[in-house]
Design goal:
Elements (H helix, E strand, L loop, with lengths): L2 H7 L7 E3 L11 E6 L10 H15 L4 E6 L4 H13 L2 E7 L7 H8 L2 E6 L1 H7 L23 H7 L3 E2 L7 H7 L12 E6 L3 H9 L5 E6 L7 H11 L9 E3 L13 H14 L8 H13 L17 E6 L5 H7 L4
Helix pairs in contact: 1-2, 2-3, 2-7, 3-4, 7-8, 8-9
Length: 335
């Protein structure tokens, strides 16, 4: 199947909404639902497919044959982009922060799916991925907005490519994430979601109804800056929207991005044993820990302060996938 046919016809199955039947929550008066985007696809699950969907489409429509993107050595985004590009008949290039490691399962999976990897120092990576430097700009073509290309060295090295930001964090990624809630038939009051680049949060915030609220749980320390990212990415999506009704809960990073403390691992294992739902240790596990704290301990989350959630409240938690993140944890000997 060529890339044009692929872009028009390939679409992984949607994901179900599942009620979380956990004995621990019995008697809380709170109904907890989970949008199982982790079930979308084995290799492009969760928000990875959501964020790549429109980027792939635009790549093909603009007659590009190569996608260039960025990520860390254990990046879910790098893994998913390599696989998706191979399925779409596109070439892929990954600019990787740090040094090569032939034993790294994520990098090996990307290579097996045809991705060309280029390793750069952390300083070079920061410069290449600085905010505003590359947003939604297909390098190699004239830019109708008049913005100057700054990726000249990459263009000279790799030729013509369509650039997808780290984590799929651009307006096209937001457009895909804005489709999540349209698949939910159940009624809910609060949406909870983990946050890395804020792309998924922006998509959810755009698509909320007026009487619904969004709480984001940054996976990294000092995640308060994501408030500005949500607003910026929402504008970049070019989707008309009103007030963005969201808040960030920054107390559940567990030491920072990809950090795994014993209490988090214990919670994840217990949750999976009781419900049969797997969580990842980098994003969704942290978010769900915070949700349980909010339900069971009246943890001051968002505007609710120390006041318990009203009985009858329905929470929709979004499972953003990322289960391949366990491979990186195991490779580093953290689990």
């Amino acid at each position: 199947m060529d890339t044009i046919d692929y872009a028009k016809s390939y679409k992984p199955a949607g994901s179900p909404v599942q009620e979380v039947n956990d004995p621990i929550l019995k008697g809380s008066g709170i109904r907890l639902l989970i949008k199982r985007d982790d079930l979308i696809h084995e290799h492009i699950s969760g928000n990875k497919w959501r964020k790549l969907k429109h980027n792939i489409s635009d790549t093909v429509q603009q007659n590009h044959h190569t996608i260039l993107t960025f990520g860390g050595a254990y990046s879910n985004h790098i893994s998913a982009t390599a696989y998706t590009c191979k399925k779409a008949g596109l070439e892929s290039i990954g600019i990787i922060r740090g040094e090569d490691d032939s034993t790294n399962p994520t990098l090996n999976f990307a290579r097996e799916n045809g991705m060309q990897l280029q390793f750069v120092s952390r300083e070079e990576y920061r410069e290449l991925t600085r905010v505003g430097a590359y947003r939604n700009t297909p390098v190699g073509d004239d830019d109708s907005t008049g913005r100057a290309y700054f990726h000249t060295p990459l263009q000279e090295c790799f030729g013509r490519f369509f650039l997808v930001p780290e984590g799929g964090a651009n307006g096209l990624g937001v457009r895909g994430c804005a489709e999540i809630l349209s698949e939910v038939e159940e009624q809910f009051d609060i949406v909870c979601c983990a946050a890395g680049t804020a792309t998924t949060l922006a998509g959810l915030a755009i698509s909320l109804k007026e009487d619904q609220k969004l709480i984001g749980f940054p996976a990294l320390k000092g995640g308060g800056f994501l408030e500005g990212e949500v607003k910026r990415l929402a504008l970049e999506s070019n989707i008309r929207h009103g007030t963005l009704n969201f808040e960030l809960e920054t107390d559940y990073h567990f030491g920072g991005y990809a950090k795994l403390k014993p209490e988090l691992l214990e919670f994840i294992n217990g949750f999976t044993e009781r419900t049969g739902i797997p969580l990842d240790p980098i994003y969704t596990g942290k978010m769900m820990f915070g949700v349980y704290d909010m339900i069971l301990n009246s943890k001051p989350v968002g505007a609710y302060g120390h006041t318990p959630l009203p009985r009858g409240t329905t929470i929709l938690a979004v499972h953003t996938g990322g289960l391949q993140g366990w491979q990186g944890m195991k490779h580093r000997g953290l689990v």
